[in-house]
Amino acid sequence: MKTSERSPEPNHGEFDAAGAGYDALTLSIVIPAFNETRRLGRTLERIRRYAEQVEARWEVIVVDDGSSDGTADLARLFDPGCLRLHVLVSPKNMGKGYSVREGALAATGAMILMCDADLSTPIEDVEKLQPWIERGYDLVIGSRHLPQSVLDPPQGFSRRIMDAVFRRVRRTVMLADLHDTQCGFKCFKRLVARRLFPLLTVHGFGFDCQVLYLARTLGYRIKEVPIRWSDDRDSRVRPLRDAARMLLDLFVIKRRPAVEPPHVRAHVHAANHRAEVLASEICGCFSCQSIFSPDRVEAWFRGPDDDRATACCPECGADSVIGSHCGYPITNEFLERMRRHWFGSRGG
């Protein structure tokens, strides 16, 4: 997949000790696009205007899914203003799920928002999703089927029938508590997205169900919130063909277990450990028994392979660092006992 970028002066930011990602780029917006020259420019303009209004540092990733109408060129020529704009290009049409996966795995923001190229849900509604991430939910999904949702205008008759049939079957097969899995407005913690999307095998419109099913299987917390939504009749969904494929995908997803490749498990462990160490008040090394503050460890996390870095001791370089937030029942008393034990064993 080819990539290009237009952005202000690069700023790689500091790592967020809360474990979500980088605080310099609070949000990455992933936009899958297939032959979207008619709508994409207007969508990028709306996002840029709103980001300037709220003084946000956002990243926008447009993933061109093998378009033949110059979608990628339009995105490359767009003036990003305050945004950091990336354009990824697939050599051929791979499907919406594939495009979202590639964009999510390339994102660097603390949170990752996926939205459609027509921006059927206004970008301002991200304010309805982000607070729930900050309250501890792992992913927050927009819903068109909650009492407070606003559809203006609603979908056409054929799409409403397709949606109703699919929802009835889907709630029988999986995710019965969710009202709307297919709305294209979803927000993920970055580390959660980095764990879920490598497992994605459904590349078509049924990918939403697989991502949410994987999230539920792996124990992540999902919040569904009402959003505003405006139907665009120039849809890429083909009601009969795509509905049949999505129904088939449900049973494929249900039969396929969520098995993480070893490199994904290792990546997630390293990223979570890094976040936990940086959130600690004090750290220590099991190898050399030295004690130090987490800001001394942070320097070991910077570099081109930052996402896969581990916590290394600044004294001896060993990757055997423990902090007060690393999953152990560490209290101040325990840390003091640990300090006395370590210093005592060294004769200090």
Instruction: Please give the CATH architecture of the largest domain.
Output: Alpha-Beta Complex
Overall average residue pLDDT: 78
What does the largest sheet look like? 8 strands, mixed
CATH topology call of the largest domain: Spore Coat Polysaccharide Biosynthesis Protein SpsA, Chain A
CATH class of the largest domain: Alpha Beta
Classify the helix fraction into a percent range.
25-40%
List the strand order in the largest sheet. Answer: 1-4-3-2-5-8-6-9
- Please, what is the CATH homologous superfamily of the largest domain? Spore Coat Polysaccharide Biosynthesis Protein SpsA, Chain A
Q: What is the radius of gyration computed over CA atoms, rounded to a whole number of angstroms?
A: 22 Å
The H/E string reads EEHEHEHEHEEHEHHEEHHEEHEH
What is the number of beta strands? 13
Characterise this structure.
With 348 residues, the protein is an alpha/beta fold. It has two domains: 2-259, Spore Coat Polysaccharide Biosynthesis Protein SpsA, Chain A (Alpha-Beta Complex), CATH 3.90.550.10; 263-345, no CATH class. The chain is built from eleven helices and 13 strands. The chain has helices spanning 40-54, 71-77, 96-106, 126-134, 157-173, 190-196, 207-217, 239-255, 262-278, 294-298, 332-345, and strands at 2-6, 22-33, 58-64, 84-89, 109-114, 139-143, 150-151, 186-189, 222-226, 228-229, 283-285, 291-292, 321-323. The strands form three sheets. It has an eight-stranded mixed sheet with strand order 1-4-3-2-5-8-6-9. Helix 2 links the parallel strand 3 (58-64) and strand 4. The longest helix has 17 residues, at 157-173. The chain is globular. It starts with a strand and ends with a helix. The model is unreliable at 7-24, 299-309 and 326-331 (pLDDT under 50).
